[in-house]
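Q: Please design a sequence for this.
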């Protein structure tokens, strides 16, 4: 029960933080995208700082959840952050939930429930050897790098989805390494953990992921980035948990079918919620405002 409370609390903080960050990132200079200068520009925005405060709170709660439970259990709970993001966005946009909104909510809730009930994620399995460990890390990091490289050759608005996917993959990897660090602290103490490479990789991934997320948020409306981020993170986290952390899922044919159906429902629910009108379409709103200003200027002439 503690893991569920911590996981949902983390999702709430992350969802609220993402909406506030996206509002601020829309005002950032386009020339700073995919650069550390973007963070320097945003750090002067109070709304962005509030969003970061929520995000840090979410990261702390998710770290506590990962210390208490398996990555394969915590990641589906973190995917519900989109529900809290839509709740705040709905207040900002004053949109009703509607049939599509409820459909997305039910799909996401059913997917999380089906995966957890069918898979019964648990620890206790043997951790993978070094070769498998680095193979999983390399595949996830390589996919993220490929997505970023692809995004750089795309138009600005189209960059948002691949950048968010890359950030989601890295955040899933970060969650797995956070659990590894927490386990080492629990067994050998803080000093031994700090002598390993995992804590510093967690920090580096956090900074890199933040740059990717803010670039995605600033490039396009929230509905084009947050669903991709939310869908990629649990998939990467579960893959890492099962791949090298020793997480175990039920592998009977029936359980695997329900686990696959649950993951599919999570992705579909994320996509449906992401397309809901409650999520702000800041780029279009900004474009409309700019167009209106041009028209009024031309009228006065």
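A: Design:
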């Amino acid at each position: 029960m503690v893991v569920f409370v911590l996981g949902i609390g983390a999702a709430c903080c992350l969802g609220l933080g993402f909406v506030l960050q996206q509002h601020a990132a829309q005002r950032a200079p386009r020339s700073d995208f995919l650069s550390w200068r973007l963070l320097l520009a945003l750090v002067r925005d109070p709304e962005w700082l509030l969003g970061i405060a929520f995000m840090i709170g979410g990261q702390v709660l998710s770290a506590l959840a990962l210390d208490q439970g398996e990555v394969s259990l915590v990641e589906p709970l973190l995917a519900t952050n989109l529900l809290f993001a839509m709740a705040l966005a709905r207040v900002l946009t004053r949109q009703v939930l509607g049939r599509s909104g409820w459909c997305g909510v039910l799909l996401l809730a059913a997917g999380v429930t089906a995966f957890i009930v069918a898979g019964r994620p648990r620890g206790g399995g043997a951790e993978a050897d070094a070769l498998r460990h680095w193979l999983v890390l390399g595949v996830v990091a390589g996919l993220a790098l490929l997505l970023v490289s692809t995004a750089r050759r795309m138009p600005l608005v189209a960059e948002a989805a691949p950048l968010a996917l890359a950030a989601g993959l890295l955040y899933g990897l970060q969650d797995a390494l956070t659990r590894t660090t927490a386990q080492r602290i629990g067994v050998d103490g803080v000093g031994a953990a700090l002598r390993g490479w995992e804590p510093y990789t967690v920090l580096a991934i956090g900074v890199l992921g933040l740059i990717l997320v803010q670039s995605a948020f600033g490039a396009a409306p929230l509905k084009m980035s947050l669903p991709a981020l939310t869908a990629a993170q649990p998939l990467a986290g579960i893959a890492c948990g099962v791949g090298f952390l020793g997480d175990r899922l039920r592998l009977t044919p029936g359980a695997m079918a329900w686990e696959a159906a649950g993951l599919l429902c999570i992705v579909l629910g994320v996509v449906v919620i992401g397309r809901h009108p409650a999520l702000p379409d800041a780029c279009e709103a900004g474009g409309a405002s700019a167009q209106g200003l041009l028209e009024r200027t031309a009228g006065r002439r």
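Q: Thanks. Anything notable?
A: The mean pLDDT is 80. The CA atoms of residues 123 and 247 lie 5 Å apart.
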